[in-house]
């Protein structure tokens, strides 16, 4: 999720502007000339912090004012109450051309609480996405918990105390409900396939009273949008909110076609988003888990021209609408890795600028609190091609 880059957009850091663009085809003009170069990967040791196991890190956000990161755990309360961590990442710039991660240290943990300041009981919150807002709050999306019949939520919490400040409304079509004679099908987010990705659009000011835009998306298709034909891609829904002092507005909704599931896939979905300019361009992280382990791809998105589907309870065939356009930036299977294997990458954020002025992109993995997995932190350089 993008935070902290309120004055300079990522496209400025990349040196991308309209006058610099070469003459290209109409299709290429949909996208920014963008590349991502892997610089380093660090693996966090298994650890506890203030009697909580550090794990399940499903989203990460950068705080430019404090030069810190925040990472939310998707622990539903099985190991400790729902929470997010404050991380300090130090980068070694001794070789300016190829910076590396010197260390990643847990500095604090903040427990999420309801309006009365009470910790959430088990299985009431499944935090999966996190954004730092200009008003010193964190916006967090929960997938919902099917076992406790808890619906998904989109909430705002105080950064310092973790106390709930605002509950934003989600459209009814996202709330799980059994099939009725009227609907003919179940509706709403499916278990473990709800709101997983979130980002904040670049703003001109970091002021508390400056309206800002939030974009969030489901990991995979809603129940009413699910297509059982493996030849067709599943389609996530991508939501656009405008949030200001004392109010929020639901602006639009778009169809996001996932990549086709490869043979042997167990899970396939969109895990995070990063806004990279005010022109509707984003980075999207897709993750597949299957017989070949984790397969990760990074895409650039162009939302301009996408059809608003906010009036559609269920999606029509994609042939009838214009979905978000995608362009592959990195297929992680092609990278030379300093680790044995790619882990469960779920979180993504723009970090501090690198010495050459390009933007840094940081990713983090969710170890699922498993002894067979690790928490990895990845560092990329974003630059123009």
Description:
With 385 residues, the chain is mostly beta strands. The protein has a single domain, classed as Tachylectin-2, Chain A. 1% of the residues lie in helices and 44% in strands. It contains one helix and 22 strands. The protein has one helix at residues 10-13, and strands spanning 34-44, 48-49, 52-53, 57-63, 68-73, 83-92, 100-111, 127-132, 137-142, 153-158, 164-168, 195-200, 212-218, 235-244, 247-257, 265-275, 281-290, 293-302, 325-331, 345-350, 359-365, 375-384. The strands form six sheets. It has a four-stranded antiparallel beta sheet with strand order 1-22-21-20, with no helix packed on it. Strands 4-5-6-7 form a four-stranded antiparallel beta sheet, with no helix packed on it. It is globular, with a radius of gyration of 20 Å.
Helix-strand blueprint:
Elements: H1 10-13, E1 34-44, E2 48-49, E3 52-53, E4 57-63, E5 68-73, E6 83-92, E7 100-111, E8 127-132, E9 137-142, E10 153-158, E11 164-168, E12 195-200, E13 212-218, E14 235-244, E15 247-257, E16 265-275, E17 281-290, E18 293-302, E19 325-331, E20 345-350, E21 359-365, E22 375-384
Antiparallel strand pairs: 1-22, 2-3, 4-5, 5-6, 6-7, 8-9, 9-10, 10-11, 12-13, 13-14, 14-15, 16-17, 17-18, 18-19, 20-21, 21-22
How would the global form be characterised? globular
Classify the fold: give the CATH topology: Tachylectin-2, Chain A
Output the helix-strand order.
Answer: HEEEEEEEEEEEEEEEEEEEEEE
- The overall pLDDT average reads 91
